[in-house]
Amino acid sequence: MIVVVAVLAGAVGLAIGSFLNVVAYRVPAGLSVVRPASACPECGHAIRGRDNLPVVSWLLLAGRCRDCRSSISVRYPIVEALTSLAFVIVAMSFGGAIANASSVAATVGAILELLAFAYLAAISIALSAIDLDVRRLPNAIVLPSYLVAAALLTPAAILSDRPDALVSAGVGLAASLVFYGILWLVAPGGMGFGDVKLAGVLGIYLGYLGWAQLLVGVGAAFTLGGVFGLVLIVIRRAGRKSAVPFGPWMFAGAWIGIMAGEQLALGYLELVGLA
């Protein structure tokens, strides 16, 4: 059963990853993600159906357009593969609650929770790619994510009889917005306002899981971002005032909090003798 779930999640992730490539390219440019159909940016030929298979088509075409032989970025199959892997991890991490649910209501709640975190995985990849490209986190993706989180996690908590999760999610939202907002006001050059808006979304998800996940998720983002910045300075690829996209590190930290926040928090408390 677990193998079947993993295979299905991986297949869905590949398809979603293919769409995320369209999102990452078109949303920053203000283009529709539906029309026109995908085409080669060099020669304008529409992408054939057989050439639109995630990862496989890129490999069969050796990373080149079938018509003009221009290079196709390796990022396309990487995004597709990463999304597939992310969906497998989410399914394996949250799918157990579905199998162990004791009622129909709890089953539906667990399914909604899984969908919520699958959505978070998808926007994590899309927004990270966009932030790396254009140093921006588009409102067209970030703002609707508040509604998606509320629409999925609110009934998930109610049906699973976890009203406390809604309270902690609300606190996570408010605390993250205030914390990042203060940092933005104090040092406006240190991060963009898009980071502040994204912080609220991540705060909802982390707070929904618990206080340990929230604290670890936020702390890990700054730790990873700080280490990466120091490495760039040491190898002279950036200076102290260089702008480095923080969105990818916010997502990386959040997923550390989601997947291992409780264990890391407990390990830290044991290390300092408080547990």
Notes on the structure:
The chain is mostly helical and 275 residues long. It is built from nine helices and no strands. α1 crosses α3 and α8 (211-234) packs across α9 (247-271). The radius of gyration is 20 Å and the shape is globular. The mean pLDDT is 92.
Index terms:
275 residues, mainly alpha, 72% helix
Offer a quick outline of the entry.
This protein has helices spanning 2-26, 56-60, 75-99, 104-134, 139-159, 163-186, 193-209, 211-234, 247-271. The chain is an all-alpha fold and 275 residues long.
| Number of DSSP E strands | 0
H/E element sequence: HHHHHHHHH
User: What composes the largest sheet?
Assistant: none
Strand content: under 5%
Rg from Cα? 20 Å
The helix/strand class is: mainly alpha
Terminal CA distance: 37 Å
Structure annotation, total helices: 9
Helicity range of the residues? over 70%
| Uncertain segments | none
Overall pLDDT score? 92
Sum up the overall morphology in one term. Answer: globular
Secondary structure layout:
Blueprint (H helix, E strand, L loop, with lengths): L1 H25 L29 H5 L14 H25 L4 H31 L4 H21 L3 H24 L6 H17 L1 H24 L12 H25 L4
Helix pairs in contact: 1-3, 1-4, 3-4, 4-5, 4-9, 5-6, 5-7, 6-7, 7-8, 7-9, 8-9
